[in-house]
UniProtKB/TrEMBL annotation:
One of its GO terms (molecular function) is phosphotransferase activity, phosphate group as acceptor. Pfam families: PPK2. GO terms for biological process: polyphosphate metabolic process. InterPro entries: P-loop_NTPase, PPK2-rel_1, PPK2-related. This is Polyphosphate kinase-2-related domain-containing protein. Residues 56-280 form the Polyphosphate kinase-2-related domain. It comes from Xylanimonas cellulosilytica (strain DSM 15894 / JCM 12276 / CECT 5975 / KCTC 9989 / LMG 20990 / NBRC 107835 / XIL07).
Amino acid sequence: MSGRHSKHDLETTPDDKLLRKLEAKWEDSPTRVLRWHKGLDVRGLDCNSAPGWDGDKDDGGALVAAHAEELSELQERLFADGRSGGSRSVLLVLQGLDTSGKGGIVRHVVGLVDPQGVQHRAFGVPTAEEASHGYLWRIRNALPRPGYIGVFDRSHYEQVLVVRVEGLEPEETWRAHYDEINAFEAEVAAAGTTIVKVALIVSKDEQKARLTERLERPDKYWKYNPGDLTTRARFGDYLDAYQELFEKTSTDVAPWHVVPADKKWYSRLAVTELLLGALRSLDLGWPPADFDVEEQQRLLAET
Ligand code: AMP
Ligand code: MG
């Protein structure tokens, strides 16, 4: 299963002993540690913590680097499976308030695999066309095709987050979305998509520090949006909305994972491990040749 036999970059491949040592710094499987469970209240979460991880920042970075090759090989197997008629795909759903680090996850974690195999989509305020359809329309259109890793930067969950907090729909309308979303995700999972839902939870103080930085650095102005302050003013309401969303939409086929996001190195490590766990669980081999290998070798030799 591990991909430590590719011809290139053998020198940069850490030996198995180091890899095992780093993996052992997880006290339990990250998927289990981070999975939302009854009784977990996001409003009391220590956003600066590193749950389940018994190492420091350097260890975390080292494990991400050490797992990059396996992640990349498993993505290639998934892609090959899709090319050979397989129906499987993976969907990483990233939710989090402004500055929670969703973009960094896409660059640093998803960036570890071949971009050809990734279908990335960021969801903003619905366009006029999107708004003329039901809220799942644009989501369905962006679902990963077989063989792909889909990445949603924000998602259908905005329909029970910003829509709720800003009162964009009446309560009975947005409340009905929990069941609709569960039914939708069950359908997506049944069609072969492994859904990995991640909520990056940044603290209010850390958000202030990150927004302050955006206003102090010309190279960060582009990330700043005056509207972020409107959202920030409702920080507590958003956490309430997150809490209810976890309670209503963390299902067996599509559980939520709650990731403290004040330490960027930790959230990147955590999402790397969640994505790796999902790919490992597919247990994919390489598709067999659909041609006669020996015959092709003979024909090639004759050329
Ligand atoms: P950003 O991720 O910083 O580019 O911001 C995207 C913005 O789009 C956020 O303020 C979201 O709250 C907003 N947004 C995303 N989906 C919806 C939706 N369904 N309805 C209203 N606003 C949305
Ligand atoms: Mg923003």
